[in-house]
Design goal:
Strands 1-2-3 form a 3-stranded antiparallel β-sheet. The protein contains 3 helices and 6 strands, in the order αβββαβαββ. With 128 residues, it is α+β, with helices and mostly antiparallel strands.
C-alpha cells in the first residue's frame, strides 16, 4: 500500500530509523487516500521508543517538508479518539481540532494544520 502511494502520488510514508541502533522503529509520512480528507500526516512508532521525542522530531520535520517542499496549504491528522498521545502530538505541532466522525471500528478526530505562509504555489494541487 505504501509503495503504491509513492508511485501514484509521489510521496508517502518514510521508515523511522533510530540513529544509534540503525533499527527501524516505525513509519511516518503523508498519505492522500482516495475518498479521504486530503493530505494526511500519520505516524506509528514501536511502543519501546515512546517518550523519547522521536515522534515530535519526525512530525515537525514532516510538517516542514509538507509546507516547504510539497507546497501543501493544509495538513490533517486523523486520530483515533482514545489515542491521547497522538492527540497531544498533533496539538504540539499546532494542529487544531476540525471535526470528528465515527466508523464501525471507533471514533476519529480530524486535526488540521494550516501553512504558516502560503508560497507562490499555494493552491496548486498536489500531484494526483
Amino acid at each position: 500500500r505504501y509503495v503504491g502511494h509513492w508511485q501514484l502520488r509521489g510521496y508517502g510514508m518514510w521508515a523511522v530509523v533510530e540513529r544509534e541502533s540503525t533499527r527501524v522503529i516505525g513509519h511516518m509520512g503523508f498519505l492522500n487516500p482516495e475518498g479521504g480528507r486530503g493530505l494526511e500526516l500519520g505516524w506509528a512508532l514501536e511502543q519501546s521508543v515512546w517518550g523519547r521525542g522521536y515522534a515530535l522530531e519526525g512530525a515537525r520535520a514532516a510538517v516542514e517538508y509538507g509546507f516547504s517542499t510539497m507546497h501543501a496549504e493544509l495538513i490533517r491528522c486523523v486520530i483515533r479518539g482514545e489515542n491521547v498521545r497522538s492527540i497531544r502530538l498533533a496539538e504540539r505541532l499546532g494542529a487544531r481540532l476540525e471535526s470528528e466522525f465515527a466508523e464501525a471500528n471507533g471514533r476519529y478526530l480530524v486535526y488540521g494544520l494550516a501553512s504558516p505562509k502560503p508560497g507562490p504555489d499555494a493552491g496548486r494541487p498536489l500531484r494526483a
